[in-house]
Write a structure and sequence with these properties.
Number of helices: 16
Shape: globular
Distance between the termini: 48 Å
Length: 610
């Protein structure tokens, strides 16, 4: 993006701040549903700063502009912010975040604006706690971009569709009953849902309002009494809803209302009501018309845990989606390597288009599940790198030299969501490449083989994975694992495998959860390595409790060879070698009937025992 344009936009924003007697503005990466991926209408931080990473918070004052982001994006952000007048602020343990900075640099009596439509209740509480101590006022009822973003994109208008019935184990009415049971347990009379994946799961509907995630913009208000008038209301742009979908919703006890009517509906609640909501997933602006005296129960939405624990039928469908995805990847790698061997000059962009091509030929394919990360050499050291037509690299190596290509990709299928990372050697790889790759593989195997107590807080098992890297005095800055949806968001809670995360009871590991196993290693300016499979929590042996309680382990459900030509076998134990050989035997057995020709030859060669 033109750096002068960024200067002009920041200058216009400062004029608006001055005109409204405001000292600062916070522009988060968020929408009214606190989503990870945002419709263009809500990408204000990107529009103002030019920074394309998915996570970041912009702060602008009369004489300062700074963007806070975590270690995944430091190199990326530094390049994009250079020359814009916006300084990179590195989020790291012990370093001030944007709230700390504002509390330290603003004066008593100053005021800070943030659009309440994109501010979670949890984040508002953090801001108020910090600002009240310094007599700083928080303003949440203004969208300052209205006047300066003249060509702001419209809200998306994609139509809803039903999740294919053959892949749905529970009806929407059955899911509603389960949510109401959770409401009753919490003592709530009403429940507000704004998180899009929860709403899509609960209704068994899908949409295309957000890139990569098959969700739609909506809120939902549920009455604990299923017999009450409008006992479950879906607030949505009615232009997205066909007559067939409207009838389907009615048949499942769900009433339709306009998307913008949710505030007015909440205003009808009385002091006798108790509203259940997740404060991290509901925006302040959504509650703007509520009267005083309404009681709140702030906790994770019942649907969040319900959808994270997949049924055996769901998991069977996901296994099939993984086989489809594995077959597509065999086609991709066989063609990719053949084109390289033929002397064709390929780029990171070619990798992306080739992956979409092979996956789109599989049954039930819908879209990629996130932007493909194809990073060669130093680009692979940027964990969330994305090649663009304006900035990409060719997979070129000099005679006698080699490099590493990191490919993190996935797809949305009606029968499952996939996410996989593999690393490919280009040319003559070095002993250093092999050492790093093998050490990451040891970490991956350590977690894949782990046993852990049923119900353990998911962040606690991160150390099991990192131990081989720590032993070699290596580490990586991102988490080791995230939950994965079922034809839903590729990043799904509540579980997260990251030692830096908090450990509330909601993050307990439960049978049926699907997570990623993705340790990595990144050498800035050189190369990046990440090995990622998806795994499902399964009982260890007899699920009946022993005297020490029940235990879980992981079943790996991603079927694609790991590049053995990058392994230094002397660094592996026999147990690790056995795991890899067993995994490759399973991959071959699952995929051999699904591919032929060059793809079968590639699969056969890449699954040979070491």
């Amino acid at each position: 993006m033109n750096k002068q344009v960024i200067h002009e936009r920041i200058a216009s924003l400062r004029q608006t701040l001055a005109a409204q007697d405001l000292s600062a503005i916070i522009v988060p990466s968020a929408d009214p549903h606190l989503s990870e991926y945002l419709p263009e209408y809500w990408q204000a931080r990107l529009w103002l700063s030019g920074f394309t990473g998915s996570v970041g918070t912009l702060v602008v004052t009369a004489d300062f502009a700074g963007l806070w982001t975590d270690s995944r994006y430091w190199v990326h952000a530094a390049a994009q912010l250079d020359g814009t007048g916006i300084s990179l602020q590195k989020l790291a343990p012990g370093q001030p975040n944007h709230i700390d900075w504002l509390a330290a640099h603003l004066a008593e009596g100053d005021s800070v604006a943030v659009d309440g439509n994109v501010l979670s209740i949890t984040e508002q509480d953090r801001l108020l706690d910090a600002f009240d101590a310094h007599d700083i006022t928080l303003i949440t009822d203004r969208d300052l971009l209205t006047d300066i973003w003249s060509d702001r994109p419209a809200l998306p208008t994609a139509s809803l569709y039903q999740h294919d019935a053959q892949f749905v184990a529970q009806s929407a009415s059955e899911k509603l009953a389960a949510v109401r049971a959770g409401m009753m347990e919490a003592g709530a009379t009403h429940h507000l849902l704004s998180s899009l994946d929860d709403i899509a799961w609960l209704t068994n509907l899908r949409g295309a309002d957000v890139d990569y995630n098959p969700v739609f913009l909506a809120h939902m208000l549920i009455d604990a009494d299923s017999e009450a008038l409008n006992s479950a209301t879906l607030f949505i742009d009615n232009n997205k809803v066909s007559s067939e979908i409207a009838q389907y919703l009615q048949d499942n006890g769900i009433t339709l209302a306009d998307y913008d009517a949710v505030q007015a509906a909440l205003a009808t609640l009385t002091a006798d009501d108790l509203l259940l909501l997740d404060p991290s997933k509901v925006a302040v602006g959504t509650l703007s018309q509520m009267g005083d005296g309404i009681g709140f129960i702030e906790q994770m939405a019942p649907s969040t845990l319900l959808k994270s624990v997949k049924s055996e039928a769901d998991i069977d469908h996901v296994r099939e989606a993984m086989r489809q995805d594995g077959a597509a990847l065999c086609e991709f790698f066989a063609t990719f390597e053949q084109r390289l061997d033929n002397g064709e000059r390929l780029s990171e962009l070619d990798v992306d288009s080739m992956l979409i091509d092979v996956r789109s030929q599989q049954p039930h394919y819908v879209s990629p599940s996130f932007p493909t990360i194809a990073g060669f050499n130093e680009n692979g050291a940027l964990p969330h790198y994305r090649a663009t037509p304006e900035k990409f690299s060719y997979l070129d190596v000099a005679e006698g030299e080699g490099g590493l290509l990191l490919i993190d990709s996935g797809a949305q299928y009606q029968n499952g969501t996939t996410d996989i990372t593999r690393v490919v050697g280009i040319g003559q790889v070095s002993s250093e490449h092999k050492r790093d790759f093998t050490t990451v593989l040891k970490a991956h195997i350590a977690l894949a083989k782990a046993h852990f107590p049923d119900g353990i807080a998911s962040p606690l098992i991160d150390a099991i994975c990192r131990a081989p890297l720590w032993q070699a005095q290596m580490d990586y800055g991102h988490g080791t694992g995230h939950g994965v949806g079922y034809f839903l968001n590729v990043h799904e809670g509540p579980q997260v495998i990251a030692y830096s995360a908090s450990t509330p009871k909601e993050r307990a590991m439960k049978e049926g959860m699907i997570s990623s196993n993705e340790p990595g290693l990144y050498r800035e300016g050189k190369w990046g390595i990440r090995i990622e499979n998806l795994v499902v929590n399964t009982p260890v042996g007899n699920p009946a409790e022993t005297e020490f309680g029940s235990f879980l382990n992981f079943e790996t459900i991603t079927y694609c060879p790991i590049e053995t030509r990058l392994i230094e076998p002397s660094l592996l134990t026999q147990i690790e070698i056995d795991w890899l050989n067993d995994y490759h035997s399973q991959v071959y057995a699952e995929l051999k009937e699904r591919v032929d020709g060059a793809a079968l030859e590639w699969l056969t060669e890449r699954t040979q025992a070491i």
